[in-house]
Amino acid sequence: MKLLVILLFSGLVIACRGNLPPKLLLVSFDGFRADYLKNYELPHLQNFIKEGVLVEHVKNVFITKTFPNHYSIVTGLYEESHGIVANSMYDTVTKKYFSDSNDKDPFWWNEAVPIWVTNQLQENRSSAAAMWPGTDVSIHNTTPSYFMNYSSSVSFEERLNNITMWLNNSSPPVTFATLYWEEPDASGHKYGPEDNENMRRVLKEVDGLIGNLVQKLKMLGLWEDLNVIITSDHGMAQCSQDRVINLDYCISESSYTLIDLSPVAAVLPKINRTVVYDKMKTCHPHMNVYLKEDIPNRFYYQHNDRIQPIILVADEGWTIVLNKSSQKLGDHGYDNSLQSMHPFLAAHGPAFHKGYKHSTINIVDIYPMMCHILGLKPHPNNGTFSHTKCLLVDQWCINLPEAIGIVIGALMVLTMLTCLIIIMQNRLSAPRPFSRLQLQDDDDDPLIE
Ligand SMILES: *[C@@H]1O[C@H](CO)[C@@H](O)[C@H](O)[C@H]1NC(C)=O
Ligand SMILES: *[C@@H]1O[C@H](CO)[C@@H](O)[C@H](O)[C@H]1NC(C)=O
Ligand SMILES: *[C@@H]1O[C@H](CO)[C@@H](O)[C@H](O)[C@H]1NC(C)=O
Ligand SMILES: *[C@@H]1O[C@H](CO)[C@@H](O)[C@H](O)[C@H]1NC(C)=O
Ligand SMILES: *[C@@H]1O[C@H](CO)[C@@H](O)[C@H](O)[C@H]1NC(C)=O
Ligand SMILES: *[C@@H]1O[C@H](CO)[C@@H](O)[C@H](O)[C@H]1NC(C)=O
Ligand SMILES: *[C@@H]1O[C@H](CO)[C@@H](O)[C@H](O)[C@H]1NC(C)=O
Ligand SMILES: [Zn+2]
């Protein structure tokens, strides 16, 4: 019945909107920790959610850093499979280095195909980007039709103006667009997530930007037909001067090359690997040390040449340093099973339910959902489409309370029917003599057959 209604309704919606292709705007506010939503006032975001859907926790991928997780959102792949395994990388074969300020070599990105490239291979569709890691790189010889070179000094207003202009009047139409903003990550690092006063101020600003976004889309008449996803790459943990692990106390810097430092250090030994490993292993009780082949399976972080022979993983809130390195009050990159590392996801638009709350999905599940909304065939990926079915109006989904309700309802109907039958039988059989005998006859029937 419900299925029928949904089918009829979606048929109606499609008929009414003609054959306009679906459009999707993907927004990331970097470092937006899931529980900021519970702990701070965010009226504009809450309004957005009231008319749309909310996923309270998005389990992201290890390592919980910016470039790797942004690439997982748009490819549906674990880091070992999409190849962006850190913000700082080294490839031993080609001797190439990658960093967030030296990221334009397609070599690093070409192990996967991001959704904006796939979208443009469809006839009459283009993609646009007001920043997002990788959108200013020619991946598989393709950039978005409209994009900006990354620059943190371009204001949110300019990013918003340009992306909405591209969404409003380009031909072929822009059907997939991204918008990226550096906060609340930058302030989370600076003050730490537990600095309520500063974080309240910063999150109020971020919420104001969400208000501007919605207002702008309404003003241009884009709000009703556009699907908008607001999400993030990771959360933030509180760090402290008292929780540092100084590698220099344990091993000489001359015995290894450090590719990445904290909270997950990537170590390329210059001398015997076992010797380096043994010295680091006993360095600090709050630091896990893994040979590459022993990295836990649950991290899906092993099968790639860009993952170094030894990795060091600090416990939540701990920082790995060398004597000289500086320190932050907030950081991320830790174990992706930690709640503090998780972002959230909110979405609004014709593809999504209104006023639906969901507890959790994986960050790699976002990609198959976006492909579904845009009508694209997804590349092989590590996401599961069914995890997001409850968010979508054109899908049939049973959640646990609903399922229990259906089972209880069915049991009640069955019980009532049984009672009715018994009552009827009693009524029919009561006046008849030898009814006991009759019943015994009935019982024998199956045996005779
Ligand atoms: C692409 O767009 C052009 C002009 O808007 C139109 O004539 C053509 O039929 C479209 N092609 C497809 C496959 O939709
Ligand atoms: C935004 O669009 C304006 C007007 O077309 C253009 O002058 C400006 O360079 C664009 N900004 C960026 C960062 O691309
Ligand atoms: C981005 O930067 C490159 C190199 O500096 C330049 O050639 C290109 O025109 C820029 N693209 C845009 C869209 O600004
Ligand atoms: C948006 O597109 C509509 C229809 O093509 C046009 O009338 C309007 O001027 C555009 N607005 C902006 C701000 O470009
Ligand atoms: C590395 O050191 C270990 C233990 O000291 C030793 O058994 C092993 O043979 C060494 N390997 C190489 C390649 O030198
Ligand atoms: C780091 O600190 C240790 C212990 O205080 C000291 O022995 C070492 O020389 C220092 N290394 C550097 C590079 O400053
Ligand atoms: C993730 O997906 C890729 C592409 O399909 C596949 O090669 C890889 O084995 C998957 N990883 C896991 C852990 O299933
Ligand atoms: Zn980030």
| Percent in strands | 15-25%
Spans with pLDDT under 50 lasting ≥5 residues? 1-17, 433-449
Number of separate domains: 2
Mean pLDDT value: 91
CATH classification class of the largest domain: Alpha Beta
**Helix/strand-derived class?**
alpha/beta
Query: What's the helix count?
Result: 13
Bound molecules: 2-acetamido-2-deoxy-beta-D-glucopyranose, zinc ion
User: What would you report as the Rg, rounded to the nearest angstrom?
Assistant: 28 Å
Calculate the terminal CA-CA distance, rounded to whole Å: 39 Å
Number of E-type strands? 18
Shape: globular
**What is the CATH topology descriptor of the largest domain?**
Alkaline Phosphatase, subunit A
How would you characterize the largest beta sheet? 8 strands, mixed
Share in helix: 25-40%
Q: Give the full name of the CATH homologous superfamily of the largest domain.
A: Alkaline Phosphatase, subunit A
**CATH architecture designation of the largest domain:** 3-Layer(aba) Sandwich
Strand order of the largest sheet: 6-5-7-1-8-17-2-18
Organism: Otolemur garnettii (Small-eared galago)
Subcellular location: Cell membrane
Keywords: Blood coagulation, Cell membrane, Disulfide bond, Glycoprotein, Hemostasis, Hydrolase, Membrane, Metal-binding, Signal, Transmembrane, Transmembrane helix, Zinc
GO molecular function, one term: bis(5'-adenosyl)-triphosphatase activity
